[in-house]
Amino acid sequence: MEDRPHTTSGTTLDETLMRENLRKARSSRGLTQAQVAESLDISVTAYQKIESGKTRILNPHFTKCASTLGVPLTELVNGFSPVKDAARTIEEMKESYGIKMKVQESDFLQEIQRRDREIERLNNVIKDKDETISTQKILINQLMGHLKD
Prior knowledge:
Elements: E1 6-8, E2 11-13, H1 15-28, H2 33-40, H3 44-52, H4 61-69, H5 73-78, H6 82-148
Antiparallel strand pairs: 1-2
C-alpha cells in the first residue's frame, strides 16, 4: 500500500511517521506485537499489518493503541506529546541555564578578580615608573646645577 498523506480538518497526517511512532512507543515500553494485539482484541497478523502499513493507520484501533501503550494520541501522531514535552523541556532548560549561569557568573567573578589584580600590578608599575622619573629629574637638576657651577 502506498503511503499517502491524508488530510483531516486541513491537517496532513504522515501515516509512515505514525506507524513508526506506534512501533517506537510499543518497543520503548517493552511490549511485543502479540501483547498489543491481545490488548486490542485483534490477531497478531492484524496488528502487524497496522505497523507495516498494509492496513490503514487511521482505524478504530489507533485510539485504543494509544490507550494500551499509555501515551496520548498526539504522541502517536506527532512523535511527541506537545504539552508534556514542552513542560519537561522548559524545566530542563531552566535547570540547564541555571547551571550555565552559575558557572558563567563564577567565571566572570574570577575574571574580575584577575583583572583587579592586574590593574593593581599595573598601578604599581606606573607608581614605580613615576618615582623613577621623579628621581631622574632630581638627579638631572642636580647635575645641571653642578655643570653651571
